[in-house]
Amino acid sequence: MRNKIIFALSIIGIVAGLVAAYIFGIERKPQPPVFKPASSPYESAIYANGIIESEQPSGANINIYPEVSGPITRVLVREGQRVSAGTPLLTIDDSVQRATTEQLKLQSEAALALLEELKAQPRQETLVIAKAQVELAESNLKVARDQYDKRRASYDIDPKSISKDVLDTAEGALNQAVAGLDVARKQYELTRAGAWSYDITNQEKQYEALKQGYDAANALLQKYSLKALSDGVVLAVNATAGSYVSSQGVYDAYTQGLNPLVVMGAPQGYLAVRCYVDEILVSRLPSPGHIRAQMSIRGTDIKVPLKFVRVQPYVSPKIQLSNTTTLSLS
Questions:
Q1: How far apart are CA 144 and CA 146, in angstroms?
Q2: What are the b/e assignments for 1-34, b being 16+ CB within 10 Å?
Q3: In terms of CATH, what superfamily is 122-194?
Q4: 233-291 per-position pLDDT tens digit
Q5: Which of 98, 207, 269, 276 would you label with 328, given CA atoms 20 to 30 Å apart?
Q6: Angle between helices 95-120 and 197-222 (to 10 degrees)
Q7: Rounded distance, CA 287 to CA 255, Å?
Q8: Axis crossing angle, helix 124-157 with helix 164-193, rounded to the nearest 10
Q9: What is the pLDDT of residues 132-184, one digit of tens each?
Q10: Contact, 292 vs 275, CB < 8 A?
Q11: How do 88-92 and 225-227 pair as beta strands?
Q12: CB neighbour list of residue 36: distance below 8 Å, 6 or more residues apart
């Protein structure tokens, strides 16, 4: 019985081996490639990597960075949206700067009010009081003079009628009344003349300094709202409400680098291709009139003919073998 089982298993193993040999021996057709490998349609060509960007008369896409730091409170645009110059793109928390600006505004307004007060002098009410003080001093002088004249006349008639001390006291009161009238008149003239010119000039300078401080703070306050500086299309928005941004941009946790908050392109319906040519191949570039180019999108069979526009003749020599160069073709 045992020999029969071993014999049967041997037969099954041989059959399984023959079937496996037959299956694995079948010749299979190779799978077609997912996309056709890139090939040059020209006799001689230069290969270069590049990027697609909006068409610009000069330069590249518009990268917008904030001039201030803080958390974003609102994002007002979306990618692909056409915007005109001056359109708000997003806002940054401005609570502290707004309070500072309002404080400087109130200080400048207070300085202006004081300046207008100095220029409006003398006040009619103050002038009336000063004039009344002059009249009071004149009345006091008249009374003192009458008292002195009476005592002087009595003393001249009979020196024994009054004492010399009483006469001297009346004379002193008369001199005080004369001096008091002189002070009252000078005070009236000073009041009528108004504020001193130096006080007005000093207050004007203080107001101007505070006004410029307010203008500067208000100008900085406007920086908390990022606006488009030209007409264009929003290509990318790299931040959301709640993200903290600085003048260097917004931190990207994926690339661990800093990106612009908004990238904008030109408003027309054309795109440009910027090719970065290796510095070693620069000498092989033909004259602009003979440059022909074709773009192949990696991973697809798409090929797009290109029209040469210009060369950006900026060459960055290699420092490391892994570096890229920055001479570009559009």
A1: 5
A2: eeeeeeeeeeeeeeeeeeeeeeeeeeeeeeeeee
A3: Helix hairpin bin (1.10.287.470)
A4: 898 999 889 999 999 988 888 878 889 999 988 776 677 888 888 877 878 888 888 88
A5: 269
A6: 160
A7: 38
A8: 160
A9: 999 999 999 999 999 988 888 888 888 878 888 888 888 899 899 999 999 99
A10: no
A11: antiparallel
A12: 301
Rounded Cα distance between 313 and 328, Å, is 7
> Residue 291: exposed, middle, or buried by beta-carbon count in 10 A (0-12, 13-18, 19+)?
middle
3-state secondary structure the chain: CHHHHHHHHHHHHHHHHHHHHHHHHCCCCCCCCCCCCCCCCCCCCCCCEEEEEECCCCCCCEEECCCCCEEEEEECCCCCCEECCCCEEEEECCHHHHHHHHHHHHHHHHHHHHHHHHHHCCCHHHHHHHHHHHHHHHHHHHHHHHHHHHHHHHHHHCCCCCCHHHHHHHHHHHHHHHHHHHHHHHHHHHHHHCCCHHHHHHHHHHHHHHHHHHHHHHHHHHCCEEECCCCEEEEEECCCCCCEEECCEEEECCCCEEECCEEEECCCCCEEEEEECCHHHHHHCCCHHHCCEEEECCCCCCEEEECCCCEECCCCCCCCCCCCCCCEEC
Q: State the amino acid at position 321 in one-letter form.
A: L
**The pLDDT value given to residue 35:** 62
Amino acid identity for residue 196 in this structure? W
Residue located via tokens 């800093």: 258
**pLDDT tens-digit map of 4-16:** 777 677 777 777 7
- Residue 109: count of CB within 10 angstroms of its CB: 14
